[in-house]
Amino acid sequence: MIKNPVPWPNGARCAVTFTWDMDADSILHLAHPNDASTRISTNSMLKYGPLIAVERIVGMLDELGIKNTFFVPGWCVERYPQAVKMILQGGHELAHHGYLHEYPNMMTRDQEVYWTKRGVDSLATASGKKPVGYRAPWYRFSKHSLEILLDEGFTYDCSLMGDDNPHLIRCPKGDLVELPGSIQLDDWPQYVHNPDVDYMMSIVPPRVAKEVYMAEFEAKWQYKGFWVNCFHPFVSGQVARLMAVKEMIIEMKAKGGVWFATGEQVAAHTRGLIEAGTYQPRIDDLPYYDARIPEFPESYMPAG
Q1: pTM, full prediction
Q2: Which of 27, 228, 299, 304 fits a 20 to 30 Å CA distance from 266?
């Protein structure tokens, strides 16, 4: 069912990359810049991530002996240095997630360049090296994002959802490895219920969320694919939910034939195969469209 799977190291059947987006309260300030300071309960909910959950997550990963990727906005790196220190001391990857969780595809190119660079600087100051991985805040990858990432020396992106396999995204300036995800492996649809961040989902038990995540894993294992999630410390770092995450990892390990790797490692492995001529990836040329498609006249307005 999955065509052209990447050959994984040591004959592994699939690759698994656990990722965490430590957005903290950046998303509240973005959504409500004028009165975020008055929304105390939501602030506390979001701060739970860096203040409580990150330590718990890092401890669990150390116990299980795997490394994860943490996508962190630059503002959160500056605001929560102790959480970032724990991530780095645990040997995990610190990757780029904007500066203030801004919307790249709602900016001019110059604005996106400014905020991308500011995020790079924050992460480089904290870790001692420039980040190589990027996930667009809210998945809002823009028409300019690929060029900007190439200019900044990134090696991979993890924002798009158009394939089952790592592949290349290309523009005239060059290409990056894309590590494609899927919305069913994001924890927001399962758990997030808060009007201040504009999500009012019906909260499911951790066993149900785990069933969704593991169904995807079983399919990727069966067909030699790539599994990458998008969890958030303030969401899946809560006790009952993290217990389910721990159970997932244990079950994945017991299944065998799984390569647990960071986003940086998967991208480097894929690029190495491409350069060696032993793997021919699918290539997406971006942007898909330059402007409004001509089939819709300027006078057309969508219903609603």
Answers
A1: 0.97
A2: 27
